[in-house]
Amino acid sequence: MNNLKARLAKERRFRLYGILSIALALTLLSILFISIFSQGYTAFQETKIQLDINFEQSVLDPKKTKDWDVVKKANFNILIKNSINELFPDVSGRSQKRKLKKLISTSGEYQLRNYIKNNIEAIGTTKKMWLLADDDVDMLIKGHINRSLPENERRIDNDELKWIEVLETKKIIKKFFNKTFFTSGDSAESEQSGILGALLGSLFALSITLIISFPIGIATAIYLEEFAPKNNKFIDFIEVNINNLAAVPSIIFGLLGLAIFLNFFELPRSAPLVGGMVLSLMTLPTIIISSRVSMKAVPPSIKEGALGVGASEIQAVFHHVVPVAIPGMLTGTIIGMARALGESAPLLVIGMVAFIVDIPQSVTDPATALPIQIYLWADTPERGFVERTSAAIIVLLIFLILMNSLAVYLRQRFEKDIN
After folding, report:
1. How far apart are CA 407 and CA 401, in angstroms?
2. Potential cystine with 76: which of 112, 128, 191, 364 (Cβ 3.0-4.6 Å)?
3. Please, is 172 exposed, middle or buried when counting C-beta atoms within 10 Å of its C-beta (0-12, 13-18, 19+)?
4. Which 8-state DSSP code applies to residue 241?
5. Burial class of residue 56, CB neighbours in 10 A (0-12, 13-18, 19+)
6. Average pLDDT over residues 202-229
7. Could you tell me the pTM of the whole model?
8. Where in the chain is the domain with CATH 1.10.3720.10?
9. CB 393 within 8 A of CB 309
């Protein structure tokens, strides 16, 4: 009787320990998500200032606008200076006016240039335009800079703070949805930086990974599980190495890609093509192992029944065994792809860590990946990049959650169709 009570008490304690472990894990996960979201959600907004831009003919010569190498950035800089000086006529002195102009991001010149390039008829007219604010102004409006701090403890001095308060009073400084974050590449200025280049780099690399690893992985699993000779030393050697490769640190695959793809085959450095090939090497063991496990889980009676009614070995495998194992194969593939999406170490080794402003157009163009972009921004102490680091992590987590949810959905869908 005492032994029974002791066993029941141990069982209750074991259950309690399990509940406490799950609660602790969920608590820590919640703290992580709250911390990331609280620091990054403001990156999905950007601050803009409305100015009355007078596109003066004396500054923009209509005869020269067809040659955009002639119409320099300085021309549009003059337009912005004239406009913001009209808002603050009391500001005098070159240093004060230069400081006043710095309230507007340097991207304002490019915005005006693109507008005139597409609207030649606007030369000689005045138009209200919302221009991107400087990153320090953006941080102040979002509340990341405390206005009550002494002047020497904040990056906005008293004059700039006074001007910003005037803009707020006139309601010509506002926060908008940050389309720049999703439509531009990396930049040295935080308010102009975005993740489009990194997203496309990850997309191209994952496409190459899927194209290479999925058919090879599935074919290898089918052969090893169904057609490979048993008790064969060579096959046993291959199986042991596949299992070992699944536990190899990811940076080793990066070194392998550096030695073979870059140094030996001389493929383009920092290209998604090489990144996808390296990630496919890393993903293959996961797909092979998960596919073999799925095929082992298929009841032997299914294959035996097909053979019993006259089907060949190949027909029995591809028409009966593989369709039943497909849910597990797809799940393993998507999980492997999700792991590849979050990897940074092998991509660092092959040079996808470069600062790249241009948006990649193909798999051979220089590019970076989303985890690498997060790494680059996290290494920058500027407050604007800290905000964007957390926002990029949020985007990456959303993609990972969606990919894992897709794996669960496909598994359930195929299992229902099979049943």
Report:
1. 10
2. 112
3. middle
4. H
5. middle
6. 91
7. 0.84
8. 196-418
9. no
Q: How far is the first Cα of the chain from the last one, in angstroms, to the nearest whole number? A: 47
CA distance 328 to 401: 18
Question: Which residue, 383, 370, 402, 377, is CA-closest to 42?
Answer: 383
3-state secondary structure of 133: strand
Q: Give the number of other Cβ atoms within 10 Å of residue 332's Cβ.
A: 24
Q: Where does 201-249 show beta strands of DSSP type E?
A: none
Q: Which CATH number fits domain 196-418: 1.10.10.10, 1.10.760.10, 3.30.1330.10, 1.10.3720.10?
A: 1.10.3720.10
Can you list the positions of beta strands (E) in 82-218? 126-132, 173-177
With beta carbons less than 8 A apart as the criterion, state whether 337 and 206 touch: yes
Which amino acid does the sequence have at 139?
M
Determine the pLDDT at residue 334: 86
Q: Is the dihedral of CA 269, 194, 163, 142 positive or negative?
A: negative
Six-digit token string for 272: 């998604």
- Both tokens of 153, joined, read 């403890």
Residue 104: DSSP 8-state: B
pLDDT per residue as tens digits for the range 121-172: 888 888 999 999 998 899 889 888 888 888 888 888 888 889 999 999 999 9
Q: Check if the beta carbon of residue 367 is closer than 8 Å to that of residue 391.
A: no
Rounded-to-integer distance, Cα 82 and Cα 89, Å: 10
The burial of 296, by beta-carbon neighbours within 10 Å (0-12 exposed, 13-18 middle, 19 or more buried), is given as exposed
Rounded CA-CA distance 180/191 in Å is 8
Confidence of residue 306 (pLDDT cuts 50, 70, 90): confident
Q: Position 337: which residue type? A: M
- In angstroms, what CA-CA distances link 144 with 24, 179, 379? 31, 20, 19
